[in-house]
């Protein structure tokens, strides 16, 4: 990994941001979560209580703690407490089913799981138990919200309140000593990302990387003290976590978490809480623009949005400026392996640039386009996007071979995305990372979906591609070769329903097509471009 650039401040931990915010912003509102109101001083105190609880629970420096919960203020407090105790946060997708969650817990060897039992009629504790997968590392489950329910001898299950109460046995001085031992170069989190191999890989990032990247990010977008930031992007994603609540703490903005996206609820919160910052994927912003009740809402407080993750029409940028009066509209590009950010547009870029380009490399990092032989290409020549700098991950958790395949000997992260750099140094992505498609802002990787679907007793072979969708941008189509002597009663619709019970909803294909054989090349690889053509002609 390349070294820190001169423009950056002294290295800090995420915990330093909390302490700095308490000193600088004190009684300013840090969090607004429905009836809960926390100042930055409150946030520092809550962080200390959470750290004491983590220490009392036996969390040692370097131990992992998973968080499987929606955007609620307890998520933030739990995460900060783990970090202050020297631990490592492992966020988990709320759309995961039991087996998917168990894989992450097992792979990371998380000792503590923070979760809820009352989100969208889902009890995550019961969901995890139903998977019936042994998790020898998991010692405690802490229920942030909801009923604790029954426990068992293998894993202790307790409420968030009881967890914090146990922390009273640890002195404030002990907590301070533990926090003071956390260094900028220590690992802050492991965020698992699905990939083309089919198995999620844990992206390892340090405290200093998180702070450096989002110092640069917040500087570029112009996030400032007193901003009121509605965080619709989920906390389990880098954008909701680091570009979300961590950035708010860094700059003194108010965190307003939203548990699930609902247009009417968004309009209501913007009006009531005078929201000034509203990032999100293009589908979210388009939905607000087209909302029947938009005219009844007071959107005059809005000034800043950041979008990306999918194609951005020029008309969307123009409408956001003209109809919602956004002063600043920023588009960007990043991936989990780059601590969420590679390139960003700037506040004064024109609509054509914002819509068609991802911007320039963030300050202090390098961006390059290379050919298949690794040779740097001139402007406007398409090739693989590679990035080098303080934003590049430390590697994949306990996967040295996968790490070596992603980061070369000179420190360049190979994204697998195809793009061009124009003479200004602005990046344009021209092709997706391998076969990935984006469903409502979530990355869906065919290999992972195919592995999950292969468990179905009637499926012999399966290949998945994305197809356009008016509402979600793209959705999955699965081409299935049935097993010999498979149940003739199993329909494509039945397999779709089965998939929805076995994997996160955004991964589940919306269509299943039975075929006699998958199209293969001479090497036996599935011809995905052929399947995309088949998808166009059902």
Overview of the molecule:
By secondary structure, the protein is an alpha/beta fold. Among the domains are: 40-188, 3-Layer(aba) Sandwich (Rossmann fold), CATH 3.40.50; 439-536, ANL, C-terminal domain (GMP Synthetase, Chain A, domain 3, 2-Layer Sandwich), CATH 3.30.300.30. Helix content is 32%, strand content 23%. It is built from 17 helices and 25 strands. Strands 4-3-5-6-7 form a five-stranded parallel β-sheet, sandwiched between helices. Strands 12-13-14-15 form a four-stranded mixed β-sheet, sandwiched between helices. Helix 12 (314-323) links the parallel strand 12 and strand 13 (328-333). Helix 1 packs antiparallel against helix 2 and helix 2 crosses helix 3 (73-84). It is globular. It starts with 13 loop residues before the first helix and ends with a helix. Mean pLDDT is 91; it is low at 1-9.
Span between termini: 47 Å
Q: What percent of residues adopt helix (DSSP H or I)? A: 25-40%
**Radius of gyration using CA atoms only:** 23 Å
Give me the secondary-structure category: alpha/beta
Q: At the third CATH level, what is the topology name of one domain? A: Rossmann fold
Strand order of the largest sheet: 4-3-5-6-7
The shape is: globular
| Binned strand content | 15-25%
How many strands, what sense, and barrel or not for the largest sheet? 5 strands, parallel
Q: What is the CATH top level name of one domain?
A: Alpha Beta
Number of strands: 25
Rounded mean pLDDT score: 91
Question: Which stretches are low in confidence, meaning pLDDT under 50 for 5 or more residues running?
Answer: 1-9
| Level-2 CATH architecture of one domain | 3-Layer(aba) Sandwich
Provide a count of the helices: 17
């Amino acid at each position: 990994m390349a070294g820190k650039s001169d423009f950056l401040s002294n290295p800090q931990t995420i915990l330093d941001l909390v302490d700095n915010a308490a000193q600088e912003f004190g009684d300013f509102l840090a969090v607004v979560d429905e009836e809960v109101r926390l100042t930055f001083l409150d946030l520092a105190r809550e962080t200390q209580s959470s750290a004491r609880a983590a220490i009392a629970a036996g969390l040692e420096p370097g131990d992992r703690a998973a968080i499987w919960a929606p955007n609620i203020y307890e998520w933030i407090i739990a995460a900060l407490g783990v970090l202050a105790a020297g631990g490592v946060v492992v966020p988990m997708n709320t759309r995961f089913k039991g087996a998917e969650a168990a894989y992450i817990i097992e792979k990371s060897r998380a000792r503590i799981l923070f979760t809820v039992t009352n989100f969208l009629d889902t009890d995550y504790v019961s969901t995890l138990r139903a998977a019936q997968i042994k998790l020898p590392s998991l010692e405690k489950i802490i229920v942030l919200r909801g009923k604790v329910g029954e426990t068992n001898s293998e894993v202790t299950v307790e409420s968030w309140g009881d967890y914090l109460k146990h922390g009273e046995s640890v002195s404030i001085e002990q907590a301070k000593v533990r926090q003071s031992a956390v260094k900028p170069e220590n690992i802050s989190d492991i965020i698992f990302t699905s990939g083309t191999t089919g198995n999620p890989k844990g992206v390892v990032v340090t405290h200093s990387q998180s702070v450096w990247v989002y110092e640069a990010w917040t500087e570029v977008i112009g996030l400032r003290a007193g901003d009121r930031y509605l965080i619709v992007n989920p906390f389990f994603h880098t954008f909701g976590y680091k570009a979300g609540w961590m950035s708010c703490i860094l700059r003194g903005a108010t965190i307003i978490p939203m548990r699930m996206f609902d247009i009417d609820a968004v309009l209501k919160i913007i009006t009531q809480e005078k929201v000034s910052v509203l990032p999100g994927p293009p589908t979210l912003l388009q939905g607000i623009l087209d909302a029947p009740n938009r005219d009844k809402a007071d959107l005059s407080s809005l000034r800043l949005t950041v979008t990306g993750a999918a194609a951005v029409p020029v008309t969307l940028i123009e409408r956001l400026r003209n109809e919602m009066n956004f002063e600043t509209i920023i588009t960007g590009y990043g991936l989990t392996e780059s601590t969420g950010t590679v390139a960003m547009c700037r506040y004064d870029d024109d609509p054509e640039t914002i819509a068609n380009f991802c911007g320039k490399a963030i300050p202090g990092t390098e961006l390059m386009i290379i050919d298949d032989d690794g040779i740097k290409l001139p402007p406007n020549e398409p090739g693989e996007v590679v990035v080098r700098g303080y934003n590049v991950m430390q590697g994949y958790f306990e996967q040295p071979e996968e790490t070596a395949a992603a980061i070369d000997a000179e420190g360049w992260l190979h994204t697998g995305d195809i793009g061009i750099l124009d003479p200004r140094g602005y990046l344009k992505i021209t092709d997706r990372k391998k076969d990935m498609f984006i469903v409502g802002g979530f990355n869906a990787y065919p290999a992972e979906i195919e592995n999950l679907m292969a468990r179905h007793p009637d499926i012999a072979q399966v290949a998945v591609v994305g197809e356009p969708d008016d509402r979600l941008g793209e959705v999955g189509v699965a081409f299935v070769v049935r097993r010999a002597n498979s149940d003739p009663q199993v329909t494509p619709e039945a397999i779709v329903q089965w998939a929805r019970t076995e994997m996160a909803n955004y991964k589940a294909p919306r269509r299943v097509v039975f075929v006699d054989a998958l199209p293969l090349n001479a090497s036996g690889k599935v011809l995905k471009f052929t399947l995309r053509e088949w998808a166009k002609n059902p």
